[in-house]
């Protein structure tokens, strides 16, 4: 299980164009899969629980060979899967790490001007607080990522933060 995580492939130099975003929403069955178009590769995955019950922790998986990103959640929650797709060969990536405010359920991180989001990841720190990541949502033009958490099952007066990282290129 890769909970609340977007994965990135590196090691090659991009030859053309910025990445693109493929977005697919499910019909309320708890699974959505986004596929990269022909002649592109999968760089990163994301997902967002759009409606559902308490603590709908999202699980993200990828199939680099098929170029697909799948988002799943237990139950009949509605969700969206995101695939970050682009030309063969990835750019040189930089990372930006940020820690959200205490008990902040949403935060956003952006790339420097002229660069695009190729991947991101998030976790709740410390673990064991009952808070879960419910969304890693790439924004328009792949310039920013919004990270969301559900604190409806938080343990008592637990102090927690969203710890997030984006990769830009």
Mean model confidence by pLDDT: 85
Question: SS-based structural class?
Answer: mainly beta
Residue ranges: pLDDT <50 for 5 or more in a row?
1-15
Number of structural units classed as domains? 1
Order of helices and strands: EEEEEEEEEEEE
What spatial order of strands do you see in the largest sheet?
A: 1-6-3-10-11-8
Q: What's the main sheet like? A: 6 strands, antiparallel
Helices, by number, come to: 0
Task: State the CATH topology.
Answer: Jelly Rolls
Q: How would you sum up the global shape?
A: globular
- According to CATH, the homologous superfamily is Proprotein convertase subtilisin/kexin type 9
Number of strands: 12
Terminus-to-terminus distance: 27 Å
Top-tier CATH class = Mainly Beta
Strand content: over 45%
The residue fraction in helices comes out at under 10%
- The CATH architecture can be given as Sandwich
Radius of gyration: 15 Å
Written overview of the protein:
This protein has 169 residues and is mostly beta strands. The chain is built from no helices and twelve strands. It has a six-stranded antiparallel sheet with strand order 1-6-3-10-11-8, with no helix packed on it. Strands 2-5-4 form a three-stranded antiparallel sheet, with no helix packed on it. It has a three-stranded antiparallel sheet with strand order 7-12-9, with no helix packed on it. The radius of gyration is 15 Å and the shape is globular.
